[in-house]
User: Fold these one by one.
Assistant:
Number 1:
Amino acid sequence: MVAAIGPVLLGLLVGHVLRRTGVGEGDHGRFLLALNFYVCLPALVLPAVAHAEVGPRLAVFPASAVVMVAVGYVVGRWLGPKAASDPADRAVVTTAFMVVNCAFAIPFVGAVHGPEGVVRVAAFDLAHGFLVATVVLAVAARAAPGTGTATGGAGRRAARSVLRTPILYAMLGGLTLNVAGVRLPAAVTESIAPFSSASLAMVALGCGLVAERVDRWAPLGLLVTARLAMGLATAATLSVALGLDALDRGVLLMLGATPLGFVVVTFASAHRLGTRLGAGLLLTSLVLSLGVYAVVGVAAA
């Protein structure tokens, strides 16, 4: 567990120290988040999707991703107005409930279930990643300041934003290669590897720089707890309804118990939403969910 979460905690701590000592500023953190959004995430998504192994037996995981994102949207939209008055903050709450942190889950799933578990996470993330790059991004873009109140204007703004997003084209390119059975050339994979491997560090440092003193642990904790409860309840319901075996059920429960998705803060920064709220939710989520995640991992094993 330390090996998986250590880099995230270290990056958050370093970013926070840089800001407190005056070396770094919030704008520096927003730049790192933007760099991650436009450069590192596409480099991470393209080979992951292109090389993911998905068979008919794993179809339940992409289907589960659609259900979990849809449930998250409904719950997030319901809780958003109750948690925040600012539309920008409401959008952050909604996207926070929609995104599953697959990147966080992979090392834990691998430790508990081995390569078979990792393949299932990859199958889940094929559908989940596409929804994040389209639907979740559109939710964030629609709420961006300056979009306007007219439905048509907001919809056009969201569509333009999605179409200008490198993640979408990385996802579509990876899916095309996957379906065609073509692997990325080694030269391409090796060239983009330094950028993809920097994604987690970019997000952690950026959040540490952006986040100010968290003085709302109680309301943030309630939101994070509600999100964890929703994820676990949805995963458990799907497991029972679909009659999943122990391996599939364990992986799905671990996906339902992940902390806040790092991309939520990245989207918030890219669209001038409630970045401070997103960073605070991320910090609180990591603190509160580690214990829950450890219990779920042990139970799933």
Number 2:
Amino acid sequence: MDRYHYTPDMIPKRPLTRLEAHHFAAAAPNRWPYTREKHRLLSEFARTNEMQTTTRGFDLSTLAAPPGPRPRSSKAGVPPVSGFDHVQYFRRYRLPVAILTEPYEPEEHLEDIREHAETLGLLVHTPPNLYASFHFPGWTGCILITRPDFGRVLWLDDQLDFETQGLVT
């Protein structure tokens, strides 16, 4: 067994939180329930923070630019620093407002992301448990980069209650 796969007898017999159940679904052979739940959690997070998810990527310089007309970047969505993995883009009122990255080994990347974002005047937010991510809770981190005028980030209750890092027992 490698660190990302479980056998059914490894799943705890106790009631699981939503993120723990999502964690086990990510390692299951049938990935459709996992994919559906991931998109549901991302949509709920976006609604909670008055955002919309978007498939049209943008880079940090676009996120940092003042609102208004801007030329289309030929490098939109290209990660400027390490740690941009499993990226999701958010808009508010059709304007870029946040980028969510969920890297493996997030501690290795958090400081680089924070330094790069600060040079552009952006803010970096993490939930109380860095591993309370949507992609693979317990294994990937949750790092949200926002415009300075974003306001307070509201994390989902599931993220606030998530206590796991790595193997769920």
